Amino acid sequence: MKLLFLYGPAAVGKLTVAQELTRLTGYPVFDNHLSIDYAAKLFAWGSPEYVQLLRAVRLFTFRQMAQMGQKGLLFTFVYTPPSSDEFVRQVLEVCEASGIEPLFVKLEASREVLLERVTSPERKPLKKLSSPERLLRMLEQGALAAIPFVESLRIDTGEVSAAEAARRIVQHYGLEP
User: Which CATH number fits domain 2-173: 3.30.70.100, 3.20.20.60, 3.40.800.20, 3.40.50.300?
Assistant: First the structure.
């Protein structure tokens, strides 16, 4: 199975690009908010139990989808170093143990573009970050960083449409519908 690991800051267009990738490849989307919302219903946000459950749900899903013979899976994620490094290493371990091919894509855009997008009304019903102040704090904490220990295709979603970004990803990784 191919695991397309789409990462970047809030409002960069991860879910929008993932939806375009689904249209092109047929791969299902595992939006990070699915696991966030689930874990937050059971434990206090950010608590050790919350983080443990969050990671377990994600890693279980990756393994299970591969075992079920799924051709590919799209996963969206906000990478904030160094707190995300352990999880990304766990993902790499699960991929190696389960025969999953991880394909990393870093979506990026300027601060101006992100700040403009973050207040978009369609973000609120999806429980996505919609506060410019919280976005700026997240950016200060490193959400613009690339994962330093993996190769990532980089695409600026401020410069290209979601459809074009998806087309470039499919072409770069040789993905088939």
Answer: 3.40.50.300
